[in-house]
Amino acid sequence: MQRPDWAPDGIDIERPSVARMYDYYLGGSHNFAVDRAAAQAMVAAVPEAPLMAQANRAFLRRAVQFLTDAGVRQFLDIGSGIPTVGNVHEIAQRNAPDARVVYVDVDPVAVAHSREILDGNDRAAVVQEDLRHPERILTHPDVRRLLDFDRPVAVMVVAVLHFVSDDDRPAELLRTLRAALAPGSYLVLSQASADGRSDEERAEAERIYRSTDNPLWIRSRGELAALFDGFELVEPGVVWVPQWRPESADGAEDAERSAFIGGVGRLGG
Amino acid sequence: MGEPPGATAVPVAGPPAATAAPGATGGRAHRPSAFARAWAKAVSGTSYLPMTQAQLEALLQRLTDQLAAALAAEPLDLRVGHRVGTELVAAHIASAEGLGRTVEVVQLRLVRDLGLVADDVEDRLARLLAAVATGYARALRDRTLDEQESIRRAAMTARAQAERALRASEARFRHQATHDPLTGLPNRTLFTERLTAAINSPGRGAERVGVCFLDLDRFKVVNDSHGHRTGDALLVIVADRLRRALDGYLVARLGGDEFVILVEHTGGTDDMVAVAEAALAAVREPAVVDGHELTVSASVGIVERQVAGASPGDLMRAADSTLHWAKAAGGVRWALYDADRDRQELARHALSAAIPAALERGEFYLDYQPLASLHDGRVVGVEALVRWRHPELGVLRPDSFIGLAEETGLIVPLGGWVLAEACRQAESWSTAGGAAPYVSVNLAVRQVDRPGLVQEVHGLLRHTGLPPERLQLEITESTMMSTAAEPVRALRVLADLGVRIAIDDFGTGYCNLAYLRDLPVTELKVAGEFVAGLRAPETRADERILASLVSLAHALDLTVTAEGVETAGQAERLRAIGCDAGQGWHFGRPEPAERILERIR
């Protein structure tokens, strides 16, 4: 007999996880040998990989800072990964203790870890779901419990879209999310870009990520800007992430080495 | 972006001990020194630091102040170094490079930049830096171990959850695979498993086991008249009642309106009858479905036997057969398995299954029985009677296989063969010269109802060259009763062709005379039981009935043939009544056509 499609998947920690690789780039130890091996291979191919991850994380921090300053008190972080240093809820709740955060990740280990970290925080939760099923995210009871979609929500899709292929119709996924948002909501996107990279580097990076459950899907700045459809990009638009509202002039030096592009859009009306 | 320049309170900064650190500058707001800025620059990028550059500089300024104070204090408090190292790690400046660059920048610049002067400052700095490195390494090791432990715990939790989910889904999957979705009762799969277990469990050989097959009577009528939704709702109610009435026994739904009950450790058939009666009573209660009060009944087939030597397949089949006996007896009852009856039915079944192959091998042949004129004794016709030369059972008469063939539909090919063979043989009789007898062939209901009968007969007549008036088709009264408009038209076409149509066994069926008005009948064959009555002189009733039938037939321009004429006396009485022809042992037993033809010549 055929197993029905609702049968759950098992957990395979023998495969590298992009969430734990990212943690390794950030200097964390929430990873296993298999993740470190893949991350080290990535560093051998693209030596700036850790810097890229750090630059992206710094972008996330500045974006959340910007959003709390703008009065946003609700955050939906999709593809949140291993909740290590500088999480959205840490930044947001430090700035605004009433801020509510829901993390969403597809990696069951990342979700279990997030749950442990968020234990006792009644204004933050984690949901195991996939960006590819935005309607399931939007209707999830924990999402509904913590977030009020009649008020502005910041949807964060940071360092995730490069794991979503065009076949998964990212524009449609984001449109579904947008349709649920109240005016004054925000969308934060960042993803890997190969602009200015050699073909070999790009090919090697793609090869390494093929060993994970999440192959890489690299996009240009124009392609990412198009995904903000329906949102007004706030200054300075879609840029290399270090160039997005840097805190100091030298923070934005050699910005293209970050290999990450990102931006923040606001839903008008 | 809203970062206050030179913030002093660094929320991410580590343990409370740090704020209580000795040092005159603790807690005082001031701009970071050139040294603190250099330190911040050195550690930037060694790992991800979840703070702004200004926050980092403010943190490192505070640590700088603590280090400077420690260098100046007497005695040298190495715990300050440990705390600084710990605090660096707590602030996520937590990598090998972070330590290396810290040692480098402190060693190269701290004393110089802050203008610290003491005789033994080099010595004190070395010891303090060692303490920083020790505190740092210790904290980093603890942090690494904590993080490893936490990710492993998360992996275990996730795995345990996944396994739980898998088990739950497997249980659900198993439940779905073994239960009927409509009623929630166990399905055939689970029933068969349990029956098999009941039979095959070691040491149970001496025990007895029973199975009741239950089927609702005329459930199709409920579906047809109220719709399938109501039918399904009724099944749910019946299932529920059976479950409650037979608590302790396994009640399963096999599909449709068929249910089955497993009774283990029975003490004999009485136990099973009690179960069957409880089931019948449960079903009998009227059920209200969608505002309709539905009363249904059921039939039950009961099998009960010793576990030793039983097989689940046999038990199920036997129960199913027994259920059909209960149905055939009119339903609303239970029937007990009867091995002899089952054997006979099986044999009959095997016999009917062998008909197609027997047809192919040519095991059937025809005998003929004469129909003689009562006026002059001339053989006017012969009735074709099929025989089966069975390779094992010998020659079989039609009553041992025609009924079966009619039930299974095999009568169509068999009857077709008989008709064709009779036409073929009868045609050759005409070449023998004289007025050749017609051949009378029995047609079953299914043959009459089948479209294409006209073409079949027409084709045969053309093919064999037999004149239509030398073929007589015998149909029974009940055939006519169940016959719809289309077959009547077919018979009329055949009659118009010249084919004779006879009603067989007249007087034993429904005796609805209306069809005599509508049908193109040429002859009535009166059943032998009336003729048998002619033996006894005191029973005049049969004679009167016969006389009336004859006069009725003649009034309708029909001829009458009496069946079962066994004696000359009967023949004489029939002739006196005015009956046209007779058939029976008195005129000749069934035999090959040649013998009859020889006698005629």
UniProtKB/TrEMBL annotation, chain A:
InterPro entries: SAM-dependent_MTases_sf (IPR029063), SAM_dep_MeTrfase_SAV2177_type (IPR006764)
Pfam families, per the entry: Methyltransf_19 (PF04672)
Database matches in Gene3D superfamilies: Vaccinia Virus protein VP39 (3.40.50.150)
Stored CDD domains: AdoMet_MTases (cd02440)
Domain of life: Bacteria
Record-given protein name: SAM-dependent methyltransferase
Annotated source species: Micromonospora deserti
